Amino acid sequence: xxxxxxxxxxxxxxxxxxxxxxxxxxxxxxxxxxxxxxxxxxxxxxxxxxxxxxxxxxxxxxxxxxxxxxxxxxxxxxxxxxxxxxxxxxxxxxxxxxxxxxxxxxxxxxxxxxxxxxxxxxxxxxxxxxxxxxxxxxxxxxxxxxxxxxxxxxxxxxxxxxxxxxxxxxxxxxxxxxxxxxxxxxxxxxxxxxxxxxxxxxxxxxxxxxxxxxxxxxxxxxxx
Length: 224
Ligand code: SAH
Fold this sequence. Notes:
Elements: H1 3-11, H2 30-42, E1 52-56, H3 62-69, E2 74-79, H4 82-95, E3 101-105, H5 113-125, E4 135-139, H6 150-161, E5 164-170, H7 173-185, E6 189-201, E7 211-222
Parallel strand pairs: 1-2, 1-4, 2-3, 4-5
Antiparallel strand pairs: 5-7, 6-7
Helix pairs in contact: 1-2, 2-3, 5-6
Bound molecules: S-adenosyl-L-homocysteine.
């Protein structure tokens, strides 16, 4: 598929109707999502084809559905907010991917989040035991601007459940050093950091501009 066609499909995905600032509900813009999912395959050589994808803080599903369009076999999408999940379901129906998605309503801050997600994956796939090497996590979690430390909690859960993680975080040298140290503590290894410009649309009252380009870093993390 051409990147422009892929972008058009991602653009058709509906975003949050009433975004919640306390949950840092910023959708990944379609350009960033298309760039990320394309570069995972072309630049990084990590095929999405037939992969099982885990999307933490899945929102209305742009990264989940984008992975399926890129031929992933199944997505486990975890999200705490039922309003976001309703829109996710509409998007999955519109693109005809309902059968390939398992939605898990769960707060990543819960102490049993990892265990709960793992048991849903085991049950759904009929695995006798958990095999994290088979799981590719692609996520754009909250950055921790509102709820301090939530980005690190997302990384902890992602690393515990996946063989490989792609994750979007706030840019900056200080944050890079901090994230690297936390990733190592959780048993992962940062292999690449790709700077990217995320375009946020104004959606909260304190936003002054209509579109705000925001620098982010995309991390590739090996976790085995
Ligand atoms: N991944 C989506 C949404 C990014 S916004 C996309 O790329 O478009 C971050 C998402 O994380 C929101 O949907 C928000 O509701 C969710 N979220 C925030 N805190 C959470 C928590 N503690 N547990 C699970 N999901 C959470």
